[in-house]
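May I ask for an example protein's residues together with how it folds?

___
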Amino acid sequence: MIGFREVLLILVVLLVVLYSRAFRVVGIKKSLGLEPTTPKDEIRVGASWLSDMAKQQPIEPEVDARVDSILSKFKATKHLTFKEYKVFRLDSLEINAMALPGAHILLTKGLMNLQTASEEQLAGILAHEIGHVELGHCRKALIRKNRTKALQLFLSLANRSPGTTALIVEHLAKLGISREAELEADDFAVELLLKAHYSPSGLMQFLERAKQMERIPEWLTFLSTHPGTEERIERLGRKL
C-alpha cells in the first residue's frame, strides 16, 4: 500500500512537470515524450524559450547578409523539415552557436565578430546547428530535461541529500547523447552543405581553429557544448 511519503513524492514530481514551460506550451504527454510532438509544437516551445532568454540578455534578429544567403541556399535543397529557420544574435562575447527547438538558431556576438570567419565556415556552423533541430536532438533534449528535473527532485527528497545525487543524474543524462548527437549533426551538416554547394571544409576549418585556441576563455563554451573536437575533425577529414 502506498504511504503518505510516497504520495507526497509523486505529487511533488507531478508539480515539477506540470509547471515546466514545456508542459504549459505543449501539454504533459508531449513534454514527457509520451505523445509525439509536431513541428508546430516545437516552434511554440522554441519561441517561448527565446522569449525567456531575451528577458535575461539582449537578443536581436541576425541581420548579417551572409546568414540570409546561406539559409536561402539551404532551403532550396528541399532537405529540411522546418522550412523557415530564424537566426538571432545573442549579446555575448563567447564564441558559440546553439540550436533551440522549432528552428531557432542563436549565434553569439563573439562568433559573428570574428574577422577571419568565412561564409563557408559560417555555413558549416549553421548546418551543424540545423542538424540538431532536424535530427530531433532539440526535441529529445527537451524531453530529457523534463524527465531529469523530475528525477532529480525525487532522488533528492528520497535520499534527503539535495543536490548530490541529482547532479550525477543530470551529468549522466547529458553524457548519454552528447557524443552521438554531435557526430550525427556533423554528418547531417556535410550532406546539407554539399546539397547547397558549399564545401564541408568550412566546418572543419572552424573546428581546427577552435581546437588551436581552446585555452582562450571565450572559446570554452563552444568547445564544452561541442565535445570531442579532435574526433570530429578527423571524421570530417575522412569525408572530404
Summary: Confidence is low (pLDDT under 50) at residues 160-177. The two ends are 62 Å apart (CA to CA). The longest strand covers residues 86-90. The chain has one domain: 4-239.
